Automatic annotation (TrEMBL):
Gene name for this UniProt entry: fbp_1
EC number: 3.1.3.11
Details of cofactor binding: Binds 2 magnesium ions per subunit.
Residues annotated for Mg(2+) 2 binding in this entry: 126, 129, 285
Domain Fructose-1-6-bisphosphatase class 1 C-terminal per the UniProt entry, residue ranges: 213-335
Chief localisation class: cytoplasm
Organism: Cecembia lonarensis (strain CCUG 58316 / KCTC 22772 / LW9)
Pathway(s) annotated for this protein in UniProt: Carbohydrate biosynthesis
Annotated keywords: Carbohydrate metabolism, Cytoplasm, Hydrolase, Magnesium, Metal-binding
HAMAP family hit by this protein: FBPase_class1 (MF_01855)
Protein's name according to its UniProt entry: Fructose-1,6-bisphosphatase class 1
Length: 346
């Protein structure tokens, strides 16, 4: 019997499509000896729901699922039809996956207790960030944080399982539904990005070991509220203009963050007299992106404190957010501090 051995040269006519998300996750399971595969399965469940939401967003105009639903969520924001659809898809996937005991969602007033006694994880999620942009075909996203519960498995969910600071995340990520659909995540061992290949139904590794530039030339902020900015932030924005930085603001948090992560820049959503605590949510927006940012060599703060060290006190707690290239965030913090100190001295 003749035996032929495979060599890479045998496949010159068929290019490699790359490493799938599933295979990549399996290869990294040894990073989590405590997880016994549950965290890997949980990430797969999120990826599955992301594929379904991607399909829904792509056919939204044809299926009459764009526009407002007519309800408001706990934030007082008008729910879009796709907000509700995405929330259902992710909740269903996480419930059926069996690894999660509770979910915190932007679209639900209270914690969703899945009554899963064997679930070791809590997921905080914004199922569809920037969903109002779907009507005008602008990029939107999903943001998620994963925590290990701290109370014993099998016991009822307790507040301490939910109210954990961002530094206790075991994984976090986002999905960007844009010109291509990408899933970017970290488990505390660097950041990796995967692009969805629709014809194969798989996410493939496209951006291994992502690193944010230490400095950048892009600033992303809604300058329509400039008159409400505190003095230090006004000084920083004026400096950006004098240095001929590029203003880029989509109004979709995931899309703005993703661009700046790749190209170098800062995203700012400040506190204002109108929103003294800021507008972005700590548990399922700021914490996730801050974890990713730091793992990629970037920085995230509320203008004064490290985001990942803030201990949450309420489910839908808001926070200002300064996130992006280290040098740019550091400069903004320095100017904020300087102007605040001058006010105190007066």
């Amino acid at each position: 019997m003749k035996i032929k051995y495979y060599t890479p040269s045998d496949s010159k006519l068929a290019y490699s499509v790359g490493v799938t998300l599933d295979r990549f996750i399996k290869s990294k399971q040894d990073d989590f000896p405590f997880a016994s595969g549950e965290l890997s399965q949980l990430l797969r469940d999120i990826a599955l729901a992301a594929k379904i939401v991607n399909r829904e967003t792509n056919r939204a105009g044809l299926a009459n699922i764009v526009g407002a639903l007519g309800n408001t969520n706990v934030q007082g924001e008008e729910q879009q039809k796709l907000d509700v659809i995405a929330n259902i898809r992710f909740t269903r996937a996480l419930t059926k996956g069996g690894e999660v005991c509770a979910i915190v969602s932007e679209e639900d007033d209270e914690v969703i207790d899945l009554q899963n006694k064997s679930g070791k994880y809590v997921v905080a999620i914004d199922p569809l960030d920037g969903s109002s942009n779907i009507d005008v075909n602008i990029s939107i996203g999903t943001i998620f944080s994963i925590y290990r519960r701290v109370t014993p498995v099998g016991s009822p969910i307790q507040p301490e399982d939910i109210m954990q600071p961002g530094m206790q995340q075991v994984a976090a990520g986002y999905v960007l539904y844009g010109s291509s659909t990408m899933l970017v995540y970290t488990t505390g061992h660097g950041v990796n990005g995967f692009t969805y290949e629709a014809s194969l139904g798989e996410f493939f590794l496209s951006h291994p070991d992502m690193k944010a530039p230490e400095d950048g030339l892009i600033y992303s902020i809604n300058e329509g509220t400039y008159d409400l900015f505190e003095p230090g932030l006004k000084v920083y924005i004026e400096q950006c203009k004098k240095r001929e930085f590029r203003a880029r603001y989509i109004g979709s948090l995931v899309a703005d963050f993703h661009r700046n992560l790749l190209k170098g820049g800062i995203y700012i959503y400040p506190a204002t007299p109108k929103s003294p605590s800021g507008k972005l949510r700590l548990l399922y927006e700021a914490n996730a992106l801050a974890f990713i940012a730091e793992q990629a060599g970037a920085k995230a703060s509320d203008g004064e404190n490290r985001i990942l060290e803030i201990r949450p006190t309420s489910l839908h707690q808001r926070t200002p957010l300064y996130i992006g290239s280290k040098v740019m965030v550091g400069e903004a913090e320095s100017l904020l501090r300087k102007e605040r100190n001058q006010v105190l001295e007066k």
